[in-house]
Sequence to fold (260 residues):
Amino acid sequence: MCRMSEFVVREAIVPDLAETTKEGVIREMVRSLQAAGHFTGSDPAEIVRAILRREQLGSTGIGRNIAIPHTKHDAVERLVGTVALSRKGVPFESIDGQQVHVLVLLVSPKDRPGDHLRALENVVRSMRNDEFVQLLRQAQTRDEIWQLLERDAAAK
Amino acid sequence: MPGGPDTVSEPLRREVTVRNPQGLHMRPAAAFAELASRYQSKVTVYRADQPVDGKNWLELLLLAAEEGTTLVLEVAGTDAPAALDALADALAAVPTDDAADPVG
Fold:
């Protein structure tokens, strides 16, 4: 339920983000999830706004070129997310001032704080591994990224 | 040499239960770590046997501490008593703004 290979929607992985701003990449990731069949009956723009509101409270740019934008929203019944890579880098007001190249988006149901916490824990735990992050950044396709997530989950 | 100003203080410990309905998520973890960093003392937070550095907010997220989780706060240093009180309060706090905007 809470490992990346369990909540990341494979079809929504974005191996090469086109957008280059914080709002742009978040929008691109939300649209990717929508295209993969999620958020039906909800306005994706509202989900983007919720994620950006959370960013205003404190950037989710956790350093080392990684960001974990997230929100809780009625649009989902279970935790969903995606992984996206930016080749150019996105300014994210990160804690270390570095641009972001790896993003993990999480959208959780409002009434499941435990799942949300465990998902955050898993993402943070995986991203502590420099080798994992490096391999992610080198991945060129959705399949490669997916395989890295599965391998990482199996290693836990 | 007998105990003097250079003697390392014994760590102080206190059990604290997380009361935030959203648990110890990113924002309260960052706030706790920021507060902990203001003290000279070493700050460790345990969930069962798992210790994390209380001044490192990403490590605090590794605890995945939901509402109702009991953690042990351990503080060691010259300002330990003040740190223990302030940090125990922070860990057990229920933020008022979370209810209005329940984001992690």
Notes: The longest helix of chain B spans residues 80-92. Chain B is about 30% helix and 20% strand. Chain B touches chain A through 20 residues (CB under 8 Å).
